[in-house]
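Let us practice reading a record.
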Amino acid sequence: MRKLITSALCSTRRTAGRTIAAVALAVGLAAPVLAQEGGPQRQAIIGFEFAGCNALFPDDNDAGLRRALHMIPDRIKEVLETPEIARDMGNDFPRPLVYALLDNLGGSMRMIVTQRGFDEATGQPRLGAVLSMQLADAQAAKTMHGEIEKLRQMAGEEGPPIEPSNRFPGMNDVQAPFGIISYGPRQSGNDWRYEIIFGDIPDADGVFDLLPKAELDGSVCRGVIDFAAASPFTGMLAGMANMGGGREGGLLVDYFKGMGLLGPNAISAEWEVAYPGDFAQEVWRVRRAGQYADGLGLSHEVISREDFTVIPADASFISIKKMEPQREFAKVKQMLGAMDDGAWEEVKGQIHEALGVDLEEGLINALGKTGVFYFADSTGGGSLLSGVLLVELSNPRTMIETLNTLADRLNGMIADEIDTEVVSVKMDKYMRDGIPFMEMRVRGAPVPSVPTLAVVGNWLVISPTPQGCTAAAAQAKGVEASSALRNRALSALGVRGDMATQLMVIDPARTMRDGYSVTTLLCGALENAVRSPNGQRDPGMVMPIHNVLAADAHPMLMTAKWDGEDYVVNTIADRSSLVNAAMMLGVGDVGEVLFGAALGAGITGAACKDAMERQHYGDWDESWDMHHDDDFDDMEADPDDEDWDDVDDMHDGQ
């Protein structure tokens, strides 16, 4: 009987494999892979290699952070050992296994999934995968494996048989659909690792050579997501969507094809993180992105010198991006039209009826190819309210006419909704220094926000305050003497666009002083979290003092450029993670805003909980008082008594 069942299972797997291969061939997407001379080559679909947590915090400023992070496993074990938690976990909780995992956290990890098409004899996919975790030593490996085996034995004998591995000595094998799973400890060079190895993997170390080669000095992490390598399987899904998904399924397939996510020539995203010197670096490379630029929304336009002149020199955060609004809008129209003939015309008519403008001619076609966003002292002290958004205009006159129409229509709609003489809300239009401004003003109520926009030359300027918009409008006239061409962070980095299509920069000299306090509070929370209640474990001070942390802090710079057909995003920042955290949390005081929101939410949640508990106990007390009034004490325990009948009636009513 056992042989009969095994034979049936194998036959089922062969039949399923042949069916999958037939579907893939039918849609014509797996054929290029299967037709390679000598059989398909092994390719990595997804994978990464990570040197370990210590490698991510190499800077001396992060020494306290490293200490605290290393204490997290001991703190977790300490919590699990408390009588109340231990009782709640019960005897079935795999405490030794969890402890073994905690003891080995922070070591290097690596993972990879590969494919070699389909087996021509069985039709089964030639998939392989490795998940590998570095352990402290051979004893740790033995302990880990022993605990996993104990857990498996507790689960019983059901399931496929588990036998010693013939492929990887010291590991165990279990049969699974489309391949064998090997699991257990394995020595790799001088390291001991615990690994799960699935399917078509003859060499668990050499397979990681399929990952992109490390190109940066001090590399600590590298990885890849290759949609071209996944094409035999994504092609099957696309074929099924085309055949069974109707018109919508075909549209979805076309959409993903346009983004370069389907087919043997699809995109591949590679990344690497390194500490090459006194800074940190991260590089993303999207291979073959050039032919899919439209679908990915990537522009080939590059940042010019003039784009920097609309930004003040004291900007603490700068973001410039080249875009293609007309092209993106055309894709939306095409998608609507493909889903339903006449859908776009219907939507266009509804928008015109509601707003009085032609969305495409009056708004989209008036936009240019550059978007700018920044925070600056001159536009509001560098806080969240100092944020300014600028959008380049290809037709400023059309945009002004559209904004006037929108303002008039909006004023009419507001007047219809707010029927009171006490308060009024209105979009006010006025001229200042020859510049047309528009403000959302509330008259008669203490509303603090006054969103404002202006059209200056060929720029639309938007700010949350009239002060910020006025200052930004003055800068948008293109005064180089006070522009970001003299920004200290950009000057220190020697940046002038350099053929970039996107750019982002953060000035630590300005933002760290605003983000330092929130980062210190977060570090304080980590310190207290890992401290032992009995005082035996203490990480000390995690956050260095401000002047030490801020000394020689490296600006954060992100640029995106075309390298042939590849799209490359390069980010450099400070070597210290704490410097980078304070820098980013200080942009627009966003850290204080988020912390305040979280604190407010916590207080509100606690107040609501307290109110609910009070209400609950208040209702209980009221019910208790109702059941235990003076008349109740005077009652006799006689069911025929009139007062007792009243109590019965009261219960029936409840």
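A brief commentary: Residues 145 and 345 are 65 Å apart (CA to CA).
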